[in-house]
Amino acid sequence: MIKVSGLEKEFKIMTHKSGMVGATKNLFSRKHTTVKAVADVNFEIQRGECVGYLGPNGAGKSTTIKMLTGILVPTRGSISVNGITPFENRKENAKQIGVVFGQRTQLWWDLPPIESFDLLGKIYKVPSSKLKKNIDNFIDILDLEKFLHTPVRKLSLGQKMRCELAAALLHDPEILYLDEPTIGLDVMAKDSIRQFLKKINEEDKVTILLTTHDLDDVESLCKRVMVIDNGKLIHDDSIASLKGRFGNYKNLELDLENDEEVHLPVGCELVRRDGKKIMVEFNTDIIKAPELITNLAGKHSLIDLSVHERPIEEVIKRIYQTEV
Ligand SMILES: Nc1ncnc2c1ncn2[C@@H]1O[C@H](COP(=O)(O)OP(=O)(O)OP(=O)(O)O)[C@@H](O)[C@H]1O
Ligand SMILES: [Mg+2]
C-alpha cells in the first residue's frame, strides 16, 4: 500500500557568521551547509497495519511524514501510496490520507469544531449525507458533544486533539498519518485517543503510521516499530524483537534497610542509586531473578523489591548508543 524506496531529503541551511564583521560577510557570501534529514530510507506498509515511527529529536520523523503527505518533495528516492506519488499528485493523495500534526491544527481557531467539520467536508467534497453520518459517529465515539459549539481556541488540549482526529477522518481516508498526536496530553486523554485509534485500526482497517515519543502509545497500538536516527532507519521489526535485540534484560528495584555499599554479582549493573533505593539492570541469560535476589538478600537487609521488564525507552537508548 505504501512503498518507500531510497528516500532522501536534504535541507540547505545558510551559514551565518556572527558579529559585525560576520554580518558584513554574510552580505557577500552565500555559504550554506547541507543537512541530510532523511537518508536512504526504505520500507513498505501493508493495508491495515499500525506502525510506530520512533526516534530522538531531529531524527527525521516529521520530514518523512511530510514527504508521505506530499507537503515536501524528496531530494532522492520514490514514494508510492496506492500507486500515487504524493508530491506529484498532492490532491489525489489527499483523498486517501488523513493527517494529524500534534503541534499544529487544521481546525479554524475562532470557529467551533462543528463548523470546521462542515467546511472540511466541503473542501474534501464529502457527500452531505455521508458527512453527517461520519460527524455523528465521531461525536459519539470521541465524545465531542459538550464542546461542539465552543470556539477551538477555548478547548483543552485533549478536547482539541479529539476534534483533530475527527477532522482528519471525515473523508474516510484509508491511511492516517499521526505526528505526535498525544503530545502534552494527560494520562486519561492519552488513553481515550489510544482506544479510538485502536478501534479505527482494528474495526475500520485504517492503516496508521504513528510518530511519537511516548512509548506507551506504541506498546498499546503497534505490532511493528520502525526506529529512525540521524535520518537512517536502524530498526524495522516487532516490538518484541526491539526489546530482545540486546539480550534479555530486566530491572530490579531494591529498598535497602541501610545506606551501605552494594556489591553486585556478574551480569548486573547499577543503573541508579538514591540513598537506600537502588535500581539494578541484569541480564537474564547470565543470572536469573531468583538467583540475584537470593544473592543480594544474603548480603543485605532488604525492605522491599520488585522486578520489571526493561522499559522500551532504555532499549531504544541502547540502540542509539551502540549503532550511531
Ligand atoms: N525546513 C527545514 N529546513 C532546514 N532543516 C530542517 C527543516 N525541517 C527539518 N530540518 C532538519 O531536519 C532534521 C530532521 O527534522 P525532523 O523535524 O524530521 O525531526 P523529527 O524526527 O521529527 O524530530 P522531533 O522529534 O524533534 O519532532 C533536523 O536536523 C531538522 O533541523
Ligand atoms: Mg517531529
Automatic annotation (TrEMBL):
InterPro entries: AAA+_ATPase (IPR003593), ABC_transporter-like_ATP-bd (IPR003439), ABC_transporter_ATP-binding (IPR050763), P-loop_NTPase (IPR027417). It comes from the Bacteria. PROSITE patterns: ABC_TRANSPORTER_2. Residues 22-255 form the ABC transporter domain. GO terms for molecular function: ATP binding; ATP hydrolysis activity. This is Sugar ABC transporter ATP-binding protein. Keywords: ATP-binding, Nucleotide-binding, Transport.
